[in-house]
């Protein structure tokens, strides 16, 4: 079966879960064409990402004139369908005209319409029968408009939290209406889609988890003794809560003399976080490791006793899955889909979001937990994530849905 995947920017270092899903579907016999609006090749370091970039058709590289000519060729063949798509683009553009980041106004939706016509024409020439988009933002908009222009059927995966921040501006309800099906990555995510979908579309909403490749996580080593030694992994951006984590470290440090945190990742808040570390005299307690590839992340997890996730908003983070697969318990804020995976007291500890004191207390609890109990929690965490997030199992669910579409 020939299908296409469409993502706004692909590949990205943070989108390895999409690559895993694609490859798992290809192992099941799918022939997949990759579309992305743009490339971030200059920022890619992982050879696997560079190879994926080579396989991806980046729409905007066609150039403005080429895109317009391609779009007009399709629209002239499909005038009635194109008029229908134009009306939908105007409607969604009006909904997104209020300035909500990422939603866009009518002018931006005219660009999406041109991109969609080009994608529909390319799909026809390639023999693509279905499009799957990742994220409910502009990639799903392009897929929907292509469908309205008599292109292939489509589906899309919603991750959150961005889609849930602006559901009306993103026309999520209309996208779900026209889609063959819509996927959420957690039950919490599906509950948010229920809020925006017409009751008649509820049967088209499904949960398919992002997955890990079990073979890349062999039987883990035991967590190190002493410490506690924590690792936090993610983009240094507002929603991840790392500034609050620095506050929590300052609260926990006086009663935990061997407490240490390794912070893996980079982003716009790095100067602010560096200043907070200095202001709280935590230079010897916190290591900023910067961006790391998959091997570097696995090593950081191996060197830690637990992952700590202080996020304010999430979907269901891949880093939690990877930490649990590596046999490490998780300290996390009880938000979004996280409690569906982390069981407090069994595979880690859940704390209320936005409270540094609770994070600090969880660090102290970790320090007081016997090493044998940490090993047992890590074992339970690994078993739980391998049962619920094997990429081959999850891809099989998605393959069934695509086949039915």
UniProtKB/TrEMBL annotation:
Coiled coil: none annotated. Keywords: Transferase. InterPro entries: Glycosyltransferase_grp1. Gene3D superfamilies: Glycogen Phosphorylase B. GO terms for molecular function: glycosyltransferase activity. This is Glycosyltransferase family 4 protein. It comes from Pseudorhodobacter turbinis.
